[in-house]
Amino acid sequence: MQTMSLYEAVGAALTEEMRRDPTVITFGEGVATKRPDLVTEFGALRVRNTPLSEAIIAGTAAGAAASGLRPVADLLFAPFLTYAMDALVNSAGKLRYMSGGQFRFPLVTLAMTGGGWCVGAQHNHNVEAWFVHSPGLKVVMPSDAADCKGLLKAAIRDDNPVMFFLDIGLLYERGPVPAGEHLVPLGSARVVQAGEQVSLVSYGKGVRACVSAAELLAEQGVSAEVIDLRSLKPLDERTLLQSVSKTGRLVVVHEASRLCGVGAEIAAIVAEHAYDRLKAPIRRITGPDAPAAASYVLEQAYMPQPAAIALAAQQLMAAPAARTLDKETVL
Prior knowledge:
Layout: E1 2-5, H1 6-20, E2 24-28, H2 31-34, H3 36-42, E3 47-49, H4 54-66, E4 70-77, H5 85-98, E5 108-113, H6 128-132, E6 138-140, H7 145-157, E7 162-167, E8 174-177, E9 190-193, E10 198-202, H8 205-219, E11 224-228, E12 231-233, H9 237-247, E13 250-257, H10 262-273, E14 283-287, H11 296-302, H12 306-318, H13 327-330
Parallel strand pairs: 2-3, 2-4, 4-5, 5-7, 6-7, 10-11, 10-13, 13-14
Antiparallel strand pairs: 1-8, 6-12, 9-11
Helix pairs in contact: 1-7, 4-5, 8-12, 9-10
């Protein structure tokens, strides 16, 4: 076991995969400058800085993937993926299907998202739901260094394009990472903390807020289970439904805005497949439908906090049981 940050975990995953597979390359905004150790070991042909143009970077990555390489492209801040949508969504995400499965598109796009650095609205915007809604793309967002390394290695080996979001607020937080080969399959959620009375489900830094909320709830005698989705597409519905079926209560947490967010999809899945197990309505704790502020105080207010999550869970504990609608109720 070793200790490293999420940023270091990305570097470790890249190093191991580039050693394992000579077709793995990495490029993007400042990649060679930020990771000189990769340049030293693998050379300037496989590790490159690029112009500050997301459209060019994404287009190059899509072309490299179609040509038999496994590119890892770093586009820095997630909001600027808007410049790369055509290459990622309209090409990489669709061309494998359009080729009848003849082509592979093993492409990983790294992007930083979320609050924590006070970088303002144009650099801080959680856009992961856009890509969950885009056919052909897989979407990952780890909450700790171990998962970051394991998921990135799995993403690089996948034959489909993967959007890999790094939560800015967690980027330099250190944690234990298994030494040697460490893979985390895409589409596998993790039970961070077992509980019996309410399920707290999140991803990215929202997981940390849920763990803190679970501690607050434990002081009130409430047993909370914390689920880290890790992968937003494919989504581990089995782990989600098993948890909610056991606890009967669900609080979904994410920093992205509420409307059409990942939390809405999770709520719909539970409503469709585990409605009869619910003891209370589903609650969502999300960011507001507003651009993020650069002010630290306002940015913290923007993000879901443990106290708000715990309060929502306490309210569910006191809520009347959910019931099946009958004809008279509907009328």
